[in-house]
Automatic annotation (TrEMBL):
It comes from the Bacteria. This is Arylsulfatase. It comes from Thalassotalea euphylliae. InterPro entries: Alkaline_phosphatase_core_sf (IPR017850), GAG_Ulvan_Degrading_Sulfatases (IPR052701), Sulfatase_CS (IPR024607), Sulfatase_N (IPR000917). Residues 41-410 form the Sulfatase N-terminal domain. GO terms for molecular function: hydrolase activity. Belongs to the sulfatase family. Residues 1-19 form the signal peptide. The keyword Membrane does not apply.
Length: 520
């Protein structure tokens, strides 16, 4: 495979001026800009966990139906080259909320007792929206750390979401596979009996709750070594936990509890502009959907969790419609990273996959440097403002930050959201994307760079630097040799053409270093 000299020239020039974005036929209808408006639309972000590009009907799912999400795609702006900033959850969430790459703060997958990653005083999407008078809330999975590194779960937990721009929060403090297995509302654990205090440790066993190693008969889900500590609700988790019996969650209750909290926030703020960051636990492991969703797909718990997630999305959209505020609400539906099948628990996700392709036509998945690590389903929906259409232009979740600032005529401070590209007209379906380059981060801060359809994956120093990926049979895409792929001809990233185009590899490496240093 050979690049044409013309394409090579364009890509080389892009290291200085960027490359021209693609314009799809559906986008070319109208390229006018809309001015900042006195009308302040609500913003709802559905941030799904571990949902792959091909995991919903509108993107080709098999064996599972997602009618509510498909309706958003069919009546909104469906993006086919939209990305999270990273192939793992913590850096992606950090990037969405701050408009900057997670590697700038050494963001990585956090333990359940990690200190707050986003510190008070850091500019965030919710704090920016509050300047325009928005009420702000986060409901669902957090996994961005809490407190200062020694959290007392029996008192006020801070810093946290309330200290970085959110007015209300109802959280899973970390993830479903980690302790503490309790809800945190604003600064306090929900339902805690102070006579039964919580203690959490990731270094040694605390309390007398059995682990899977001690009582395998009590664990109803098969788990790997990492997920074999405290058994709660029949599931062994990472870390040990004592106390807090009255506050323990039941995994199967997540859809109803989180939906109720999201809907209540919307009802309470229907007469004022609001931002809801609805951060799902689904379809992250352990996958334990409510009984009414079990068996609703042909793919076992993972497929059923997708059905559950679709129902949750539909309930919130229906509430917006019933309150008469849907036409004044921008909805962004997307995922924090690509798909993963067996990730600590064996729930038959591989055996029951059938014809379904979680990553769609792309290679890799969660953790990976390949496209499926960060290319995720993304839909922007604003009834009677955004016309139904589809685009294959490049887009990053980080662009939401600067684009909303543009819409609301808010001037960002120097250094604020330094990796966010103002892309409002594209988000509204009125113009091609302003994003010309995109850095993606795989597990372990391993970076790749997209310029238009060219993809460069930076080499690593040693082969097999991520042994846990090998144990999980996950393609990380890490090599001691540079990798270069032409996605216009090789969407599956199977033909490394770096050796044939060493000059371009050097150019893209230099561009990568420039963005790391200066931002976008």
């Amino acid at each position: 495979m050979r690049l044409s000299s013309a394409l090579l020239a364009v890509l080389l020039a892009s290291s200085i001026i960027g490359c021209s974005p693609k314009v799809s036929e559906k986008q070319s209808e109208e390229n006018q800009s809309i001015p900042a408006t006195s009308v302040k639309p609500n913003l709802v972000i559905f941030y799904i966990d571990d949902l792959g590009y091909g995991d919903v009907g509108a993107y080709g799912a098999k064996g599972v139906e997602t009618p509510n999400i498909d309706q958003l795609a069919n009546n909104g702006f469906k993006l086919t080259d939209a990305h999270s900033s990273a192939a793992t959850c913590t850096p992606s969430r950090y990037s969405l909320l701050t408009g900057e790459h997670g590697f700038r703060s050494n963001a990585s997958i956090l333990p359940g007792d990690a200190p707050a990653l986003i510190r008070p005083g850091k500019a965030t999407l919710p704090s920016m929206l509050k300047k325009a008078g928005y009420e702000t809330a986060v409901v669902g999975k957090w996994h961005l750390g809490l407190g200062d590194g020694n959290v007392d779960w029996n008192g006020d937990v801070s810093p946290g979401p309330l200290d970085i721009g959110f007015d209300y929060s109802f959280l899973l403090p970390a993830t479903g596979d980690r302790v503490p297995t309790v809800y945190l509302e604003n600064r306090n654990v929900v339902g805690l009996d102070k006579s039964d205090p919580i203690q959490v440790s990731y270094k040694e066993k605390v309390g007398d709750r059995p682990t899977r190693k001690e009582r395998p008969d009590l664990a109803r889900v098969v788990a790997d070594e990492q997920h074999s500590d405290t058994i709660i609700n029949g599931v062994s988790r990472i870390g040990t936990m004592a106390g807090g019996e009255s506050a323990l969650w039941k995994d199967e209750d997540f859809p109803d509890i989180f939906t109720e909290k999201a809907v209540n926030f919307i009802r309470q703020n229907k007469d004022k502009p609001f931002f809801l960051f609805h951060s799902y636990h689904d379809i992250h492991v352990p996958r334990l959907p409510h009984p009414r969703f079990q068996g609703k797909s042909s793919m076992g718990p993972r497929g059923d969790a997708i059905v559950q997630m679709d129902w949750m999305t539909g309930q919130v959209v229906k509430e917006l419609e019933q309150l008469g505020i849907a036409e004044n609400t921008i909805i962004v539906f997307t995922s924090d990273n690509g798909p993963v099948l067996t990730d600590g628990y064996d729930d038959m996700a591989i055996e029951m996959l059938g014809e379904h392709k979680p990553a769609g036509p792309f290679r890799g998945g969660k953790y990976s440097a390949y496209e499926a690590g960060t290319r995720v389903p993304t839909i922007i929906y604003w009834p009677n403002t955004i016309a139904p259409k589809e685009s294959d232009d490049l887009f990053s979740q980080m662009d939401i930050y600067a684009s909303m600032a543009k819409l609301l005529d808010i001037q960002l401070e120097d250094g604020e959201a330094m990796d966010s590209v103002e892309n409002l007209d594209f988000m509204l379906g009125m113009a091609p994307s302003n994003r010309k380059e995109l850095i993606a981060e795989a597990v372990g801060n391993r970076l790749s760079l997209r310029i238009d359809e060219m993809k460069y994956i930076k080499p690593v120093k040693r082969k097999n630097e991520a042994p846990f990926l090998i144990r999980k049979n996950i393609e990380g895409g890490f090599s001691v040799e540079p990798q270069l792929y032409d996605l216009s001809k090789d969407v599956g990233e199977t033909n490394n053409i770096a050796a044939e185009h060493s000059e371009l590899v050097t150019t893209m490496e230099n561009k990568l270093q420039q963005i790391i240093k200066e931002g976008y």
